[in-house]
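In the present case, backbone shapes were mapped to integers, as reproduced here:
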Amino acid sequence: MSGEKSLITKEFIDEAIDVLREGRKLRRKVPPRGQILIEQQLPYICVYRQRTQWDDWGTDKLVAGSSSFLLATAKKNEYDGLSTLLQKVAGELTACFGTFLIVEIWSGPDVAIDDNNPLGRPAFRIHHLKSQSVQSYMQILAKQLSLLKVSDRESVVTMNAVDKVAPPGLRSIIPSEIATANNIHLIGIEVAPIYRDAAKKSHFPAILKELDTRVTTVLEKVFFEFLKKETTICPPNYMSLGRRSIVHSVWQIDRIIAEVGNIVDFLLLVTPTNTGEAFEEFKKKRFQKMPEFAYHSIPFDPVTLKRQLYKAPVERIEDPTLSQLFRDQQQDIDSRITMVAERGSRRFLYSSLQLYDGPDAELVALAEEILVKFPERSKGESIKHLLTAEEFAARAETELSYYRTQCPDLSSRVEVRDDVPGVLVSQGNLLIGKGRKIFEGRAEALLSHEVGTHILTNYNGNLQPFKQLSAGLPGYDQLQESLAVLAEFFVGGLSNRRMRTLAARVLAVSWLIDGADFVEVFNRLVNKYEFHHDLAFTVTMRVYRSGGFTKDVVYLRGLVQLLKELQNGLQLDLLFMGKFGIDHLPIVRELMWRKILVPAKMRPYYLQIPAAQKRLERVRKGMTVMDLVSKQ
């Protein structure tokens, strides 16, 4: 075998170096079954060599998430070609930056897994040359790996000074003396393979995915430190070192998931179409029997649609950040399909609790405090003049016309319909219930809520390369609704009546979970908290629709969270880029740094109003939910 010629030829190496010299992205298959990727002209690379003696399942994934990596075989006949390729790459980039860093990763001894130790503890052994002193980036590597957790198990990290950085039984990818002479830094990371059980020949892909994501982040921080301390350049943030190019398969996956998500018009499908008639029926029966609700017919077969959803091969995505994003989205859409199929059953409530959870004791206490301390009507608030659905639709059209002066391609429509109970945004369009009457003093706040937040983020999300940002990432409802309520505050329209409604929704969900029926909840709102019959009915209907819908806790719960985030420095503009939750902010920021996502093109008009700017400043200085009304 040693007499075989290397498949990594001089021509292959020269072509790769020409690509680098031209400043282009280098992406090539490395014979016989490897790959090299260098997205940015930066002096570092991750290396993995596949040894043929045993099954090393999973370890290559720890390297492939980087924006600069080399996957290759460890066969002896390929060593010279592989080493020459890497020396040439290092030489080319060292000429630009003065130095180069190679991080090679391999798996250590198999982890003993049994009933007493069902999950091995993550462990890393860092190998560095004795001839090279411990630099700050090595210390960052050791520290970040020590902070790394997998399934809440803490890591063990050791450092080892060696004469040769290489997996056991292999030669150093670049001989130590050549590396030292050419200012090439070599580091090896030996990883405990907790993502497999060699004895039982079992693989643990979920553990591998978790480890892969965390190791990729650690490496980006190490490369950032290396560039900052060892070269003359300094990127703005370690997240800017993540992968930027998106392969064709990712766009395919995004399209498949987006198509399924568009079919599931979730909010419309779980909301009654006959609320007006149902309220009249409820009144006729003296508010003593829950009315019958009607719903839109389900326009899809749940099993078939789920099959289509999981045709998207998310497992093929190498980028750990994008892989996690799409996995989360698949699971979220799956849950919504299930809920639509379960309308009218007790299972709908259980699924709703999994998606939105219920209120905790602190949130319930806040809701009760709001209802006790705030009278129904704010000082100076007029409730005399009511707008018809058509009149409100005309104002909404005026609002959309303003935004079209900024963005002429805004395609959102306003529709007055008899199959929706109030005002809502569905797939970027504003739907208004035909029988809905709206207090004139509430109109501007409602437009800021629906148009200035929901339609705006849908539009900005559509401009992102990933369609998921317009449909909404998992957990987006809580941030979206709290941002929309805060918009009402910014335009001076967050009234006592509105805050009482949000509080009542929280209590209604709490009572639902505790086992109260529709009539009990309605009566409590009317008798204990003095709600008018029509408003008490609307709150109760929203919570009991489809079998028990807990989404309405997100308004008040999200508002509490959003106020804290803004006080801690969260930038408001970031939130208008699309539809996502607070938990996805780190991913959104990372994708921004990597220039995959783009800033919001359309901004809400109220951010230009001096009064709104003053209110935002007061929020940043520290305001509670109770302050939003009392200090408006």
